[in-house]
Write a structure and sequence with these properties.
The protein is mainly α and 304 residues long. The protein folds into two domains: 100 residues, Tyrosine recombinase, N-terminal domain (DNA polymerase, domain 1); 177 residues, hpI Integrase, Chain A. Helices cover 55% and strands 5% of the residues. The protein contains 13 helices and five strands. It has a three-stranded antiparallel beta sheet. Helix 1 runs antiparallel to helix 2 and helix 6 packs across helix 10.
Length: 304
């Protein structure tokens, strides 16, 4: 009787992520890389956990995963280690729910504590200065103005921005249909200045489009713009505007949220606008506001 070859559970999990969960290419790639690193570690230190070079999940114990975490601490940051552990946990969650596996050793392993990072953001003056530094005499300048105005006006992630197609944008109602993380849809409003910049850009966009292209933001070849192109644009504008610290699409997202909070918006509304699954993710902006308040207090109060 021929020996039955062990199942390639990791490959099946990644296929499920891509086809059924509709995870992004970026997510599937990261999970695949992290799980391959994990299997490489097991091959070297716990070879009994593999059969014919394929993972045997039920043979892996929590101690093996803790050992891997300990080795990673020598060369990786806590955030990177946490992501790798999350990949292993997701694999076991899939095996339990879809294939009847009983044990999840990864659940017995604590994720490393992450240092609290206060988001970097621009103050209102720097934001205005950055936008006003954009020349709009050319069609690319109009496009760049529309990009920056919309990022600041809506708080979109850069991936959400570049994924926008014309049917997602309602200029008359000033609202965008956004597909965010986890393939979740939300409606995001934008302001009058962003609307004006988009209208001026759309006057010339149609003449630059490649055949069949539906992207809102296009490159000089008429094709959908990449995230890297927007990052390069913001770095160029940062230098031109004389802003000292780094400016990325996420800086504008942080600026949007911080300015909204300072302007009186409540956390729940900001959570909805940003597309955060958990309110705790949005609450980091309250730390920014409190830090600013303490700074003002220390400078202004005579007895501080």
């Amino acid at each position: 009787m021929a020996e039955v070859s062990p199942a390639n559970w990791v490959e099946q999990f990644l296929t499920w992520l891509k086809t059924e969960k509709q995870a992004s290419v970026h997510t599937v790639s990261n999970y695949g890389r992290d799980l391959e690193q994990w299997q490489h570690f097991l091959r070297e230190k716990y070879p009994h956990c593999l059969d014919n070079n394929k993972l045997v999940p039920e043979k892996v114990g929590a101690d093996a995963i803790r050992h891997w975490m300990a080795e990673l601490f020598e060369s990786h940051q806590a955030s990177s280690i946490g992501r790798k552990l999350a990949a292993v946990r997701s694999l076991y969650k899939y095996l339990i729910r879809r294939h009847g596996f009983k044990e999840d050793p990864a659940r017995q392993v604590s994720a490393p504590k992450l240092p609290k990072k206060i988001p970097i953001f621009l103050d209102v003056d720097d934001t205005v200065h950055l936008i006003q530094s954009i020349e709009t005499k050319t069609w690319l300048g109009r496009r760049d103005r529309a990009i920056v105005e919309l990022l600041y006006s809506s708080g979109l992630r850069v991936g959400e921005l570049i994924s926008l197609s014309v049917q997602d944008l309602d200029l008359s109602e000033q609202v965008i249909r956004v597909i965010g993380k986890g393939n979740k849809e939300r409606m995001v409003p934008f302001g009058n200045l962003a609307k004006q910049a988009l209208e001026e850009y759309f006057l010339v966009r149609q003449t630059k489009l490649a055949a069949g292209e539906e992207a809102v933001f296009i490159n000089k070849f008429g094709k959908r713009l990449s995230a890297r192109s927007i990052e390069r644009l913001l770095e160029k504008l940062r230098v031109k505007a004389g802003i000292i610290h780094k400016v990325t699409p996420h800086t504008l997202r942080h600026s949007f949220a911080t300015h909204m909070l300072n302007g009186g918006a409540d956390l729940r509304s900001i959570q909805e606008l940003l597309g955060h699954a958990n309110l705790s993710t949005t609450q980091k902006y309250t730390h920014v506001t409190l830090d600013r308040l303490m700074e003002v207090y220390d400078k202004a109060h005579p007895k501080a």
